[in-house]
Structures are given as structure tokens and as C-alpha cells.
Amino acid sequence: MARITSAKAFMVDLEPKVVRTDAIQSFKSQETIFVVIRDADGAEGQGYSYTIGDGGAAILSLLHGTLLPRLMGQDADRIEAIWRDLLFCSHATAVGPIMSLALAAIDTALWDMRGRKAGLPLHVLAGGAKQSVRMYTTEGGWLHLLPEALVDDAKDAKSKGFAGSKIKIGTPTIAGDAKRLEAVRTALGDDYEIMTDANQSMTGAEAARRVPMLERLNIGWFEEPLPSDDIAGHTRLQARSTVPIAVGESLYSPGQFADYIAADACSVVQADVARVGGITPWLKVAHMAEAHNIAICPHFLMELHVSLVCAVPNAPWLEYIPQLEDIAAPMARDGGNAIAPTEPGLGIDWDQDKLAALSVEGSAFEITEANQ
């Protein structure tokens, strides 16, 4: 038994590398919540979670007052048992984003520790399906950008080996969305994949009106067309669209994905390892999707997701949105392909000095067996 003896948490607030806007919101900052766990053998694991600008303090409060104290004395090797214990110890606050984001910071730290102790990288520890994955870029497809800028970014991405771009849609008119997409399709040709993302901004009728246009342009998927709790609406839309319907960045438990899959409401699932509660539930979603012959193409956090998409066989894409260059070594790439880290654990090479320097004042705390 590797008894957990201490855990610390802190937050680093990262500014976006570029302006990031979609049909409903802007990415204000990346509040990055870190958890470091140690066991009685001296082993350590470092995990993290994030928000896009709000809620970081609430996550830290939940970790400080409830979740990290409950870790003390538990066996760090029993990750599944710990995840379920933490979920049900405060089940009245689940399922929801704050609980899932807090659980993810702990769960990713435990998987990091497991990998370091076993001497195995995460992509092997969690399955080992492949060693690399192709990428599409979202970083140049934000809604405020003009068609000319979308084209320039897609051309640049293609020249670097990327196989696709995601373009945000949700302008007031179909013509506005079509202008953006047609510009990229005309400039890049039919062999370049174009995904779209409406960020939950549309009614069922608005989304349905866009389907013929998306079909004509051979769009790779239609992401989050409707509010995430409108499963029935997504089912109706999927039934009339040959363009795959993609959902998942705004779902917070494996059960919510199960509801979508059972309702035939999506063709692509996009589980976000932080928002779904960590690596433990992410793998459940990935395997559930595989059992239904559905692809998993996760949202954001490419530095962590690269290992997870290489762990499973049904993950054809990694989303490229760089954000950690100021605090970690760059993710390994071969042109437009991301390479799974080979270092034990998560394989993210954190710059600990920069993390300490950028830690939000007053955010750090430590829980130990002795102070419980």
C-alpha cells in the first residue's frame, strides 16, 4: 500500500495566446489549478485542471475543504476507488463543472504518480493503441476573424502538415457562416478537413437550416449546434444530417455521454479530461464510444490529451490550441502529427520555477496527514 501523506494545490492564471471568441463567449484566461500528491514511499504526482476565466477559486475551495483532506491515508494505487469515494463523499454537488474540474486535478495527479512509479508513459499505461495522432487547428478559426484571416491561417497550418482546421460559426445569418466556410474550402481544396463549431448557440431550427450548406461544403463535423442539455434536439438534428454531430466539451460525467449515445444524438464525442472529471472517467467515455463505433476527439488540453488519444484506438484527431508554452516544454510534434510523450507519467515537462513565480498570490495551500 502506498499511503497518501500530503497534497498541495495552487493556481496559475495564464493569458490566452490569441483573442479567442465564439458565438457565446470569450476565453478570458486559463485559470490552471494544480494538485501535487505525495505518498509514504516518497513518490509524487502532479495533475491539473482549468477554467476559461471564472470559477478557479471555487475549485480551490472544494479541494481545500473537502477533497484533499479525504485523500490522506488512502492507497494511491487504488485510483478507481479514490475517484468514486471523492465523487460520493459530496454527491450533492455532483454532477457539475466545479466538482468535475476539482476531481480531474486529483485524478490526473494520481495517474501521473502511477506512471512515474511504474516507469511507463500515460499512453502506454492507459492502453498503448498508437504513438502519434494527426492534428487539426482551432487557433486560427475564432469567430471574430474575417474570412481572409481564416484562409491565411489554414494555408499556414496545411504547409506545416496539419490535416484540418476548425472554423467557428454562429454569425446572425447562414450567409455569414457560409462566407467563412466557403473561403476556406475554396482556398484549401477538398482534401483539407474543415470542422465547424457553433458553441451551443443555435435553436434546432437554426441548426437544421445550416445542414444543407454544411453538407454542400463537405464539413467534417457540426460541433455543439444546440445547448448541451438538449439531447432530443440533437437526436432530431442528427437524423437529418449527413454531417456528423459532435458533442462533449460541455458534458461532465460518463452518464451524460451514455445518454447521448443511447439517444443516437451524436456521431463524435469530445470528452474533455478536465471537465469530465479526470483520466479515469475519460477512459470510460472513450471505451463506451468505441463499443458503439463512435470516434472520440477531445476538447482542448492538447498536452494531456495527446497521451489519451494515443492510448485508445478510436481517437483520430487531436485539437491544436497551444497554451502552456510559458510554463512547460512544448508538446512533441512531427509536422501536423502530435507525438505521445515517452517519459513516465503524464509526460508534461513543467517548469517548476515558472509555476512558482506565476502562482496566484494566496492560492497555494498544503494538506498533510499531520494536520488532519
Spatial gap, N to C terminus: 20 Å
Shape: globular
- Helical amount among residues, as a percent range? 25-40%
Number of strands: 14
Proportion of residues in extended strands: 15-25%
- Sheet bearing the most strands, described? 10 strands, mixed
Give the number of helices. Answer: 12
* Rg from alpha-carbon coordinates: 20 Å
Low-confidence stretches: none
Class by alpha and beta content? alpha/beta
Q: Give me the strand/helix succession.
A: EEEHHHHEHEHEHEHEHEHEHEEEHE
Mean pLDDT: 96
Q: Short summary of the structure?
A:
By secondary structure, the protein is α/β, with parallel strands linked by helices. The chain has helices at 56-71, 79-89, 97-118, 122-125, 147-159, 174-188, 204-216, 231-240, 254-262, 279-291, 302-311, 352-358, and strands at residues 4-14, 30-39, 44-51, 132-137, 164-168, 193-197, 222-223, 245-247, 268-269, 295-296, 317-320, 333-334, 337-339, 365-368. Helix 7 runs parallel beside helix 8 (231-240).
Protein model, in words:
Strands 4, 5, 6, 7, 8, 9, 10, 11, 12 and 13 form a 10-stranded mixed beta sheet that branches. The protein has a 4-stranded antiparallel beta sheet with strand order 3-2-1-14. Helix 10 links the parallel strand 9 and strand 10 (295-296). Helix content is 38%, strand content 18%. With 372 residues, it is α/β, with parallel strands linked by helices. The chain has helices at 56-71, 79-89, 97-118, 122-125, 147-159, 174-188, 204-216, 231-240, 254-262, 279-291, 302-311, 352-358, and strands at residues 4-14, 30-39, 44-51, 132-137, 164-168, 193-197, 222-223, 245-247, 268-269, 295-296, 317-320, 333-334, 337-339, 365-368. The two termini are 20 Å apart. The mean pLDDT is 96.
